[in-house]
């Protein structure tokens, strides 16, 4: 099934009956790569019966390869890899891109090993060089430098951080093909969900306003003040790695390289110094407001609005200014 033209292939992660939104971001970058390489832009989507595929075509995919089976209901990497590998060895794409979601970060290295190729993780940019080889850019040394990496083997594989690129815009006029694939291997026994012990508290990646607390908070209960400001502004609460590790708040709220990457309209950093690890997760917010008693804190270098002051004085004033109440009676 090796196509006449080279293939840039995106592995789309299922999210219920829809592709995960990171696939739309990969289509944006994938179209640039495909045009530069004069290649087709393909998508491989494995999911349960009834997957929605039109959005992938409308956002630029030339061809969507679709495998549907109940075995894909759970994020069992071994099942996905086994079914994908046989097909990918036949298709022979030059490039495979996967979103660096929790599932993608677990799936991609297993898939790379099965295909006997390399993998560059958490890329922030991708482009083709003059010889048609993929140049993969990723941060290194605590985000202090950017490394350009090239893979000697094929396919060239990379994972890309969620919300790194804009989403490809939908165009209902774009024509593409959906190719339904049979499972190349017998379906093995799959896991069974006995009980869901915990559900994600909040998805801060979708918030338009994020109010984050860091080392400047004295105790866990002080997050109540940040929650009130977030509630007043219609946002969510974030946190630095330090306070998460101290047990002040769950990891669902962590912003940074080892947490969530957020791009809200407004990001308010309260008592956060601004380590490279944290800045990597929020520096692309539209407006950054920093509150810190240390005027030399690195957070002020990326802030649009800097307030040198005590967050315990500034935040209550902001709550009252925007219609909230503090302290809450």
TrEMBL record:
Name of the featured protein: Electron transfer flavoprotein subunit alpha/FixB family protein
Any Pfam family hit: ETF_alpha
Family: Belongs to the ETF alpha-subunit/FixB family.
Lineage, highest ranks first: Bacteria, Bacillati, Bacillota, Clostridia, Eubacteriales
Source domain of life: Bacteria
InterPro entries: DHS-like_NAD/FAD-binding_dom, ETF_a/b_N, ETF_a/FixB, ETF_alpha_N, ETF_asu_C, Rossmann-like_a/b/a_fold
Keyword Flavoprotein attached: yes
SMART domains (alphabetical): ETF
Domain Electron transfer flavoprotein alpha/beta-subunit N-terminal: start-end pairs: 8-196
Keywords: Flavoprotein
